[in-house]
Amino acid sequence: MKQLYALLLLFALNGFSQTIALQSFATGFNSPVEIVNAGDDRLFVVQQTGVIKILNANQVTNPSAFLNISSLISTGGERGLLGLAFHPNYATNGYFYVNYTNTSGSTVVARYSVNASNPNLANTVGTILLTIPQPYANHNGGTLRFGPDGYLYIGMGDGGSGGDPGNRAQNKNELLGKMLRLDVDNGTPYAIPAANPYAAADGADEIWAIGMRNPWKFSFDTVDGNLWIADVGQENVEEINKVPVGDGGYNFGWRCYEGNSAYDTSGCAAQNTMTFPFATYSSAGGSGNCSVTGGYVYRGTAYPNFVGKYFFADYCSDKIGMVSSTGSISYSSVLPGGGFTTFGVNASNELFVASQNNGVVYKVVDTSLGVNDVEKSPFSVYPNPAHGTFAVHSGTGAFPLQITVFDISGKKLLSRTIESDNENIDVSGLSSGLYLVNAQDNSGMPSVSRLVIE
Protein backbone atom coordinates (compact mmCIF):
# COMPACT_ATOMS: atom_id res chain seq x y z
CA MET A 1 0.00 0.00 0.00
CA LYS A 2 2.86 2.41 0.79
CA GLN A 3 4.36 1.72 -2.65
CA LEU A 4 1.01 2.39 -4.33
CA TYR A 5 0.61 5.63 -2.42
CA ALA A 6 4.12 6.70 -3.41
CA LEU A 7 3.33 6.08 -7.07
CA LEU A 8 0.11 8.08 -6.81
CA LEU A 9 1.99 10.86 -5.04
CA LEU A 10 4.59 10.96 -7.79
CA PHE A 11 1.85 11.08 -10.44
CA ALA A 12 0.03 13.84 -8.59
CA LEU A 13 3.12 16.03 -8.48
CA ASN A 14 4.51 15.39 -11.95
CA GLY A 15 1.75 14.03 -14.14
CA PHE A 16 0.52 17.35 -15.50
CA SER A 17 1.71 20.49 -17.26
CA GLN A 18 1.11 24.02 -16.07
CA THR A 19 -1.65 26.05 -17.69
CA ILE A 20 -1.46 29.82 -17.20
CA ALA A 21 -4.79 31.50 -16.51
CA LEU A 22 -6.10 34.59 -14.76
CA GLN A 23 -8.61 34.98 -11.95
CA SER A 24 -10.14 38.43 -11.46
CA PHE A 25 -9.02 39.64 -8.03
CA ALA A 26 -10.16 43.28 -7.92
CA THR A 27 -11.63 45.84 -10.32
CA GLY A 28 -12.04 49.60 -10.62
CA PHE A 29 -8.47 50.83 -11.03
CA ASN A 30 -7.50 53.71 -13.31
CA SER A 31 -4.39 52.98 -15.41
CA PRO A 32 -2.63 50.64 -12.95
CA VAL A 33 1.13 50.58 -13.57
CA GLU A 34 2.58 48.96 -10.44
CA ILE A 35 1.60 46.43 -7.74
CA VAL A 36 3.77 46.27 -4.61
CA ASN A 37 3.48 44.70 -1.16
CA ALA A 38 4.85 46.18 2.05
CA GLY A 39 5.52 42.88 3.78
CA ASP A 40 1.96 42.40 5.04
CA ASP A 41 -1.27 41.12 3.49
CA ARG A 42 -2.01 44.34 1.53
CA LEU A 43 -1.21 45.16 -2.07
CA PHE A 44 -0.50 48.75 -3.08
CA VAL A 45 -1.72 49.52 -6.59
CA VAL A 46 -0.05 52.49 -8.27
CA GLN A 47 -2.18 54.39 -10.76
CA GLN A 48 -0.47 56.41 -13.47
CA THR A 49 -2.75 59.33 -12.60
CA GLY A 50 -0.83 59.92 -9.36
CA VAL A 51 -2.86 57.89 -6.87
CA ILE A 52 -1.81 54.83 -4.84
CA LYS A 53 -4.68 52.62 -3.65
CA ILE A 54 -4.60 49.82 -1.04
CA LEU A 55 -6.01 46.46 -2.11
CA ASN A 56 -6.70 44.20 0.87
CA ALA A 57 -6.37 40.43 1.01
CA ASN A 58 -10.18 40.12 1.07
CA GLN A 59 -10.16 41.69 -2.43
CA VAL A 60 -11.65 44.98 -1.18
CA THR A 61 -9.99 48.25 -2.16
CA ASN A 62 -9.90 51.02 0.43
CA PRO A 63 -12.06 53.95 -0.68
CA SER A 64 -9.45 56.52 0.34
CA ALA A 65 -6.09 56.78 -1.39
CA PHE A 66 -2.92 55.81 0.44
CA LEU A 67 -1.20 58.69 -1.39
CA ASN A 68 -2.41 61.21 -3.94
CA ILE A 69 0.27 63.31 -5.67
CA SER A 70 -1.69 63.98 -8.86
CA SER A 71 -1.01 67.72 -8.55
CA LEU A 72 2.75 67.12 -8.83
CA ILE A 73 2.87 65.03 -11.97
CA SER A 74 2.53 65.22 -15.71
CA THR A 75 0.53 62.38 -17.25
CA GLY A 76 -0.28 60.94 -20.63
CA GLY A 77 1.58 58.47 -22.79
CA GLU A 78 4.48 57.11 -20.74
CA ARG A 79 4.47 59.86 -18.12
CA GLY A 80 2.87 59.85 -14.69
CA LEU A 81 3.35 58.15 -11.34
CA LEU A 82 5.33 55.10 -12.42
CA GLY A 83 7.08 53.38 -9.52
CA LEU A 84 6.87 52.49 -5.83
CA ALA A 85 9.28 50.74 -3.49
CA PHE A 86 8.99 50.18 0.25
CA HIS A 87 12.15 50.44 2.32
CA PRO A 88 13.36 47.04 3.60
CA ASN A 89 12.79 48.40 7.13
CA TYR A 90 9.41 49.93 6.30
CA ALA A 91 7.79 48.23 9.31
CA THR A 92 9.98 50.33 11.60
CA ASN A 93 10.92 53.48 9.66
CA GLY A 94 7.78 53.90 7.52
CA TYR A 95 9.72 55.07 4.44
CA PHE A 96 8.72 54.40 0.85
CA TYR A 97 9.94 55.79 -2.47
CA VAL A 98 8.13 56.84 -5.62
CA ASN A 99 9.17 57.58 -9.20
CA TYR A 100 7.14 60.10 -11.21
CA THR A 101 7.42 62.65 -14.00
CA ASN A 102 6.87 66.14 -12.63
CA THR A 103 4.93 68.95 -14.33
CA SER A 104 8.04 69.77 -16.36
CA GLY A 105 8.32 66.18 -17.56
CA SER A 106 11.48 65.40 -15.57
CA THR A 107 11.88 62.15 -13.66
CA VAL A 108 11.69 62.60 -9.89
CA VAL A 109 12.59 60.03 -7.23
CA ALA A 110 11.20 61.06 -3.85
CA ARG A 111 10.86 59.60 -0.36
CA TYR A 112 7.58 59.65 1.54
CA SER A 113 6.51 58.21 4.89
CA VAL A 114 3.46 56.52 6.33
CA ASN A 115 1.20 58.37 8.75
CA ALA A 116 2.23 57.43 12.29
CA SER A 117 -1.36 56.90 13.44
CA ASN A 118 -2.91 55.39 10.30
CA PRO A 119 -1.10 52.63 8.36
CA ASN A 120 -3.51 53.09 5.44
CA LEU A 121 -2.53 56.73 4.91
CA ALA A 122 0.73 58.35 3.84
CA ASN A 123 2.00 61.78 4.77
CA THR A 124 1.49 64.08 1.81
CA VAL A 125 4.84 65.90 1.87
CA GLY A 126 7.85 64.08 0.48
CA THR A 127 11.59 64.67 0.13
CA ILE A 128 13.03 64.76 -3.38
CA LEU A 129 16.18 62.67 -3.75
CA LEU A 130 16.87 63.00 -7.45
CA THR A 131 15.54 64.94 -10.45
CA ILE A 132 16.57 63.93 -13.98
CA PRO A 133 15.55 66.10 -16.96
CA GLN A 134 13.84 64.22 -19.79
CA PRO A 135 14.32 65.41 -23.40
CA TYR A 136 11.17 63.64 -24.64
CA ALA A 137 7.90 62.37 -23.17
CA ASN A 138 8.59 58.65 -23.60
CA HIS A 139 11.13 56.07 -22.39
CA ASN A 140 10.95 57.22 -18.78
CA GLY A 141 11.55 53.80 -17.21
CA GLY A 142 9.87 54.06 -13.83
CA THR A 143 10.49 50.98 -11.69
CA LEU A 144 12.14 51.22 -8.26
CA ARG A 145 13.33 48.17 -6.31
CA PHE A 146 15.48 47.58 -3.26
CA GLY A 147 18.06 44.94 -4.01
CA PRO A 148 19.29 42.19 -1.69
CA ASP A 149 22.24 44.49 -0.94
CA GLY A 150 19.85 47.06 0.61
CA TYR A 151 20.43 49.68 -2.10
CA LEU A 152 17.73 51.35 -4.18
CA TYR A 153 17.82 50.48 -7.90
CA ILE A 154 16.22 52.81 -10.47
CA GLY A 155 15.48 51.98 -14.10
CA MET A 156 16.00 54.89 -16.50
CA GLY A 157 15.05 54.87 -20.18
CA ASP A 158 17.21 56.51 -22.84
CA GLY A 159 15.10 59.68 -22.89
CA GLY A 160 12.86 58.80 -25.82
CA SER A 161 12.63 59.48 -29.53
CA GLY A 162 13.53 56.73 -31.96
CA GLY A 163 16.89 55.02 -31.90
CA ASP A 164 18.44 57.07 -29.06
CA PRO A 165 19.67 59.88 -31.35
CA GLY A 166 21.58 61.48 -28.48
CA ASN A 167 23.41 58.20 -27.80
CA ARG A 168 22.61 58.66 -24.13
CA ALA A 169 22.45 54.97 -23.20
CA GLN A 170 26.15 54.50 -23.99
CA ASN A 171 27.24 57.80 -22.42
CA LYS A 172 28.56 57.04 -18.95
CA ASN A 173 28.17 60.68 -17.93
CA GLU A 174 24.39 60.63 -18.58
CA LEU A 175 21.84 59.10 -16.18
CA LEU A 176 19.43 58.24 -19.01
CA GLY A 177 19.52 54.74 -20.49
CA LYS A 178 20.91 53.29 -17.27
CA MET A 179 20.31 51.28 -14.15
CA LEU A 180 21.10 53.49 -11.17
CA ARG A 181 21.96 52.40 -7.61
CA LEU A 182 21.70 54.65 -4.55
CA ASP A 183 22.40 54.25 -0.84
CA VAL A 184 19.34 55.96 0.65
CA ASP A 185 20.32 55.18 4.26
CA ASN A 186 23.34 57.46 4.24
CA GLY A 187 24.20 60.88 2.88
CA THR A 188 22.00 63.86 2.06
CA PRO A 189 19.83 63.12 0.18
CA TYR A 190 21.68 59.87 -0.62
CA ALA A 191 25.15 58.35 -0.79
CA ILE A 192 26.91 56.47 -3.58
CA PRO A 193 27.65 52.78 -2.91
CA ALA A 194 31.42 52.41 -2.97
CA ALA A 195 31.20 49.52 -5.44
CA ASN A 196 29.28 51.47 -8.08
CA PRO A 197 31.45 51.16 -11.22
CA TYR A 198 32.05 54.89 -11.71
CA ALA A 199 32.18 55.90 -8.05
CA ALA A 200 35.96 56.31 -8.21
CA ALA A 201 36.31 56.74 -11.97
CA ASP A 202 35.18 58.94 -14.84
CA GLY A 203 31.41 58.72 -15.19
CA ALA A 204 28.26 59.48 -13.21
CA ASP A 205 28.56 58.04 -9.72
CA GLU A 206 24.91 56.88 -9.57
CA ILE A 207 25.27 54.51 -12.54
CA TRP A 208 25.24 50.77 -11.90
CA ALA A 209 24.85 49.61 -15.53
CA ILE A 210 24.60 51.24 -18.96
CA GLY A 211 23.08 50.41 -22.34
CA MET A 212 19.36 50.32 -21.51
CA ARG A 213 16.62 51.44 -23.92
CA ASN A 214 13.61 51.47 -21.60
CA PRO A 215 13.85 49.08 -18.61
CA TRP A 216 10.15 49.57 -17.80
CA LYS A 217 10.08 46.67 -15.32
CA PHE A 218 12.71 44.78 -13.37
CA SER A 219 12.76 42.60 -10.25
CA PHE A 220 15.02 40.58 -7.99
CA ASP A 221 14.67 36.83 -7.53
CA THR A 222 14.00 36.33 -3.81
CA VAL A 223 15.94 33.05 -3.78
CA ASP A 224 19.22 33.68 -5.62
CA GLY A 225 19.14 37.49 -5.74
CA ASN A 226 19.57 37.68 -9.52
CA LEU A 227 18.28 40.81 -11.21
CA TRP A 228 15.85 40.32 -14.11
CA ILE A 229 15.43 43.33 -16.40
CA ALA A 230 12.90 43.46 -19.23
CA ASP A 231 14.10 46.07 -21.71
CA VAL A 232 11.61 47.29 -24.32
CA GLY A 233 12.91 46.93 -27.88
CA GLN A 234 13.14 49.43 -30.72
CA GLU A 235 11.55 47.66 -33.70
CA ASN A 236 12.22 43.94 -33.75
CA VAL A 237 13.46 42.45 -30.48
CA GLU A 238 12.21 42.45 -26.88
CA GLU A 239 14.89 41.42 -24.41
CA ILE A 240 15.06 39.92 -20.94
CA ASN A 241 18.33 40.21 -19.04
CA LYS A 242 19.40 38.19 -16.01
CA VAL A 243 22.50 39.17 -14.03
CA PRO A 244 23.85 38.74 -10.51
CA VAL A 245 23.76 41.94 -8.49
CA GLY A 246 27.43 42.16 -7.59
CA ASP A 247 29.28 45.37 -8.35
CA GLY A 248 27.52 46.13 -11.63
CA GLY A 249 29.44 47.65 -14.51
CA TYR A 250 27.31 45.85 -17.12
CA ASN A 251 26.77 47.24 -20.61
CA PHE A 252 23.49 45.85 -21.92
CA GLY A 253 24.24 47.04 -25.44
CA TRP A 254 21.66 49.60 -26.54
CA ARG A 255 21.90 51.49 -28.98
CA CYS A 256 24.72 49.39 -30.39
CA TYR A 257 22.53 46.29 -30.22
CA GLU A 258 18.83 45.59 -30.08
CA GLY A 259 18.76 42.30 -28.24
CA ASN A 260 21.45 40.19 -29.93
CA SER A 261 21.24 42.05 -33.24
CA ALA A 262 23.43 44.95 -34.29
CA TYR A 263 21.46 48.22 -34.45
CA ASP A 264 23.95 51.11 -34.67
CA THR A 265 27.47 50.02 -33.81
CA SER A 266 29.23 53.24 -34.83
CA GLY A 267 31.58 54.32 -32.06
CA CYS A 268 30.62 51.35 -29.86
CA ALA A 269 32.83 49.42 -27.50
CA ALA A 270 33.92 45.90 -28.42
CA GLN A 271 31.13 43.33 -28.62
CA ASN A 272 32.80 41.15 -25.97
CA THR A 273 32.33 43.94 -23.44
CA MET A 274 28.54 43.79 -23.81
CA THR A 275 26.15 41.73 -21.68
CA PHE A 276 23.66 40.13 -24.07
CA PRO A 277 20.11 39.06 -23.15
CA PHE A 278 19.24 35.85 -21.34
CA ALA A 279 16.13 35.55 -23.52
CA THR A 280 14.57 37.43 -26.43
CA TYR A 281 11.41 37.33 -28.51
CA SER A 282 10.32 39.03 -31.71
CA SER A 283 8.26 42.21 -31.87
CA ALA A 284 8.75 42.62 -35.60
CA GLY A 285 5.80 43.42 -37.84
CA GLY A 286 3.25 40.62 -37.95
CA SER A 287 4.34 39.08 -34.64
CA GLY A 288 1.50 40.66 -32.66
CA ASN A 289 4.03 41.76 -30.03
CA CYS A 290 5.18 45.30 -29.30
CA SER A 291 6.49 45.89 -25.77
CA VAL A 292 7.70 43.58 -23.01
CA THR A 293 6.26 43.98 -19.50
CA GLY A 294 8.70 42.38 -17.10
CA GLY A 295 7.52 40.40 -14.10
CA TYR A 296 8.95 38.08 -11.47
CA VAL A 297 10.50 34.69 -10.90
CA TYR A 298 7.67 32.77 -9.25
CA ARG A 299 8.57 31.78 -5.68
CA GLY A 300 5.08 31.14 -4.28
CA THR A 301 3.78 27.83 -2.96
CA ALA A 302 0.35 27.42 -4.59
CA TYR A 303 1.59 26.36 -8.03
CA PRO A 304 4.68 24.12 -7.89
CA ASN A 305 5.09 23.91 -11.68
CA PHE A 306 5.53 27.68 -11.82
CA VAL A 307 8.40 27.70 -9.31
CA GLY A 308 11.67 29.06 -10.68
CA LYS A 309 10.17 30.36 -13.92
CA TYR A 310 10.30 34.04 -14.85
CA PHE A 311 6.94 35.52 -15.87
CA PHE A 312 6.49 38.42 -18.29
CA ALA A 313 3.83 39.73 -20.66
CA ASP A 314 3.65 41.62 -23.92
CA TYR A 315 1.50 44.74 -23.94
CA CYS A 316 0.03 44.04 -27.40
CA SER A 317 -0.25 40.26 -27.69
CA ASP A 318 -2.27 39.83 -24.45
CA LYS A 319 -0.25 36.72 -23.61
CA ILE A 320 1.90 35.84 -20.61
CA GLY A 321 5.21 34.15 -21.15
CA MET A 322 7.43 32.03 -18.93
CA VAL A 323 11.21 31.85 -19.20
CA SER A 324 12.78 28.58 -18.05
CA SER A 325 16.14 28.17 -16.34
CA THR A 326 17.69 27.56 -19.79
CA GLY A 327 16.21 30.70 -21.36
CA SER A 328 13.51 29.00 -23.41
CA ILE A 329 10.11 30.72 -23.54
CA SER A 330 6.60 29.26 -23.47
CA TYR A 331 3.39 31.25 -23.76
CA SER A 332 -0.15 31.21 -22.50
CA SER A 333 -3.10 31.55 -24.81
CA VAL A 334 -4.60 35.03 -25.28
CA LEU A 335 -5.80 36.11 -21.85
CA PRO A 336 -8.64 38.41 -20.74
CA GLY A 337 -8.04 42.08 -20.10
CA GLY A 338 -4.92 42.60 -22.14
CA GLY A 339 -2.74 45.68 -22.12
CA PHE A 340 -0.79 44.18 -19.21
CA THR A 341 1.31 46.96 -17.67
CA THR A 342 2.63 45.41 -14.47
CA PHE A 343 3.06 42.29 -12.41
CA GLY A 344 3.23 42.19 -8.63
CA VAL A 345 3.63 39.69 -5.83
CA ASN A 346 2.07 39.57 -2.38
CA ALA A 347 3.97 38.79 0.81
CA SER A 348 3.58 35.06 0.05
CA ASN A 349 5.13 35.56 -3.40
CA GLU A 350 1.92 34.69 -5.24
CA LEU A 351 1.75 36.43 -8.60
CA PHE A 352 -0.63 39.14 -9.84
CA VAL A 353 -0.92 41.12 -13.07
CA ALA A 354 -2.84 44.29 -13.94
CA SER A 355 -4.58 45.33 -17.14
CA GLN A 356 -4.50 48.95 -18.23
CA ASN A 357 -7.34 48.23 -20.65
CA ASN A 358 -9.98 47.41 -18.04
CA GLY A 359 -8.42 48.39 -14.70
CA VAL A 360 -8.55 44.84 -13.31
CA VAL A 361 -5.95 43.21 -11.06
CA TYR A 362 -5.80 39.48 -11.78
CA LYS A 363 -4.23 36.61 -9.89
CA VAL A 364 -2.04 34.40 -12.09
CA VAL A 365 -3.02 30.75 -11.56
CA ASP A 366 -2.21 27.28 -12.82
CA THR A 367 -5.57 25.85 -13.87
CA SER A 368 -4.23 22.31 -14.06
CA LEU A 369 -4.40 22.33 -10.25
CA GLY A 370 -8.17 22.73 -10.31
CA VAL A 371 -8.92 19.21 -11.49
CA ASN A 372 -8.71 15.79 -9.90
CA ASP A 373 -5.27 14.26 -10.43
CA VAL A 374 -6.38 10.74 -11.20
CA GLU A 375 -8.72 11.12 -14.16
CA LYS A 376 -10.68 7.93 -13.49
CA SER A 377 -10.77 8.33 -9.74
CA PRO A 378 -14.25 7.96 -8.22
CA PHE A 379 -13.44 10.77 -5.76
CA SER A 380 -12.93 14.52 -6.21
CA VAL A 381 -12.27 17.42 -3.84
CA TYR A 382 -14.19 20.70 -3.93
CA PRO A 383 -14.01 23.67 -3.90
CA ASN A 384 -10.54 23.74 -5.37
CA PRO A 385 -8.87 26.12 -4.53
CA ALA A 386 -10.31 25.91 -1.01
CA HIS A 387 -10.78 28.67 1.55
CA GLY A 388 -10.85 27.24 5.06
CA THR A 389 -12.77 24.04 4.29
CA PHE A 390 -13.24 21.49 1.55
CA ALA A 391 -15.40 18.42 0.90
CA VAL A 392 -14.96 15.17 -0.98
CA HIS A 393 -17.43 13.94 -3.58
CA SER A 394 -17.77 10.22 -4.23
CA GLY A 395 -18.89 9.36 -7.74
CA THR A 396 -19.94 5.92 -6.56
CA GLY A 397 -21.61 7.03 -3.33
CA ALA A 398 -19.24 4.79 -1.37
CA PHE A 399 -19.13 5.98 2.24
CA PRO A 400 -17.64 6.12 4.81
CA LEU A 401 -14.33 7.47 3.46
CA GLN A 402 -11.08 7.83 5.34
CA ILE A 403 -9.65 11.23 4.35
CA THR A 404 -5.99 12.07 4.97
CA VAL A 405 -4.26 15.33 4.01
CA PHE A 406 -0.51 15.40 3.29
CA ASP A 407 1.86 18.19 2.38
CA ILE A 408 3.89 17.72 -0.81
CA SER A 409 6.77 16.17 1.13
CA GLY A 410 4.42 13.36 2.21
CA LYS A 411 3.98 14.48 5.83
CA LYS A 412 0.55 13.61 7.21
CA LEU A 413 -1.23 16.70 8.52
CA LEU A 414 -4.73 15.52 9.40
CA SER A 415 -7.00 12.52 9.08
CA ARG A 416 -10.73 11.96 9.59
CA THR A 417 -13.63 9.80 8.50
CA ILE A 418 -16.55 11.32 6.60
CA GLU A 419 -20.02 9.84 6.05
CA SER A 420 -21.34 11.95 3.14
CA ASP A 421 -20.57 14.39 0.32
CA ASN A 422 -21.62 17.45 2.31
CA GLU A 423 -19.23 17.09 5.24
CA ASN A 424 -16.78 19.97 5.34
CA ILE A 425 -13.20 19.23 6.36
CA ASP A 426 -11.58 22.11 8.25
CA VAL A 427 -8.19 23.13 6.87
CA SER A 428 -8.20 26.69 8.20
CA GLY A 429 -5.11 25.88 10.25
CA LEU A 430 -3.05 25.11 7.14
CA SER A 431 -1.12 27.79 5.27
CA SER A 432 -1.72 28.63 1.63
CA GLY A 433 -0.20 26.17 -0.80
CA LEU A 434 -0.49 22.79 -2.49
CA TYR A 435 -1.60 19.66 -0.59
CA LEU A 436 -2.47 16.06 -1.38
CA VAL A 437 -5.75 14.48 -0.29
CA ASN A 438 -5.91 10.69 0.04
CA ALA A 439 -9.41 9.18 0.05
CA GLN A 440 -9.85 5.49 0.95
CA ASP A 441 -13.09 3.54 0.89
CA ASN A 442 -13.76 0.34 2.82
CA SER A 443 -11.68 -1.69 0.37
CA GLY A 444 -8.59 0.32 1.32
CA MET A 445 -7.89 1.48 -2.24
CA PRO A 446 -6.30 4.98 -2.11
CA SER A 447 -7.09 7.85 -4.49
CA VAL A 448 -4.86 10.92 -4.42
CA SER A 449 -6.04 14.39 -5.48
CA ARG A 450 -4.31 17.76 -5.41
CA LEU A 451 -5.84 20.50 -3.28
CA VAL A 452 -4.87 24.16 -3.37
CA ILE A 453 -5.54 26.14 -0.21
CA GLU A 454 -5.68 29.93 -0.58
Automatic annotation (TrEMBL):
<dbReference type="InterPro" id="IPR012938">
    <property type="entry name" value="Glc/Sorbosone_DH"/>
</dbReference>
<dbReference type="InterPro" id="IPR011042">
    <property type="entry name" value="6-blade_b-propeller_TolB-like"/>
</dbReference>
<feature type="domain" description="Secretion system C-terminal sorting">
    <location>
        <begin position="381"/>
        <end position="453"/>
    </location>
</feature>
<dbReference type="InterPro" id="IPR011041">
    <property type="entry name" value="Quinoprot_gluc/sorb_DH_b-prop"/>
</dbReference>
<protein>
    <submittedName>
        <fullName>Cadherin</fullName>
    </submittedName>
</protein>
<feature type="signal peptide">
    <location>
        <begin position="1"/>
        <end position="21"/>
    </location>
</feature>
<feature type="domain" description="Glucose/Sorbosone dehydrogenase">
    <location>
        <begin position="30"/>
        <end position="323"/>
    </location>
</feature>
<dbReference type="InterPro" id="IPR026444">
    <property type="entry name" value="Secre_tail"/>
</dbReference>
<keyword id="KW-0732">Signal</keyword>
<dbReference type="Pfam" id="PF18962">
    <property type="entry name" value="Por_Secre_tail"/>
</dbReference>
<dbReference type="Pfam" id="PF07995">
    <property type="entry name" value="GSDH"/>
</dbReference>
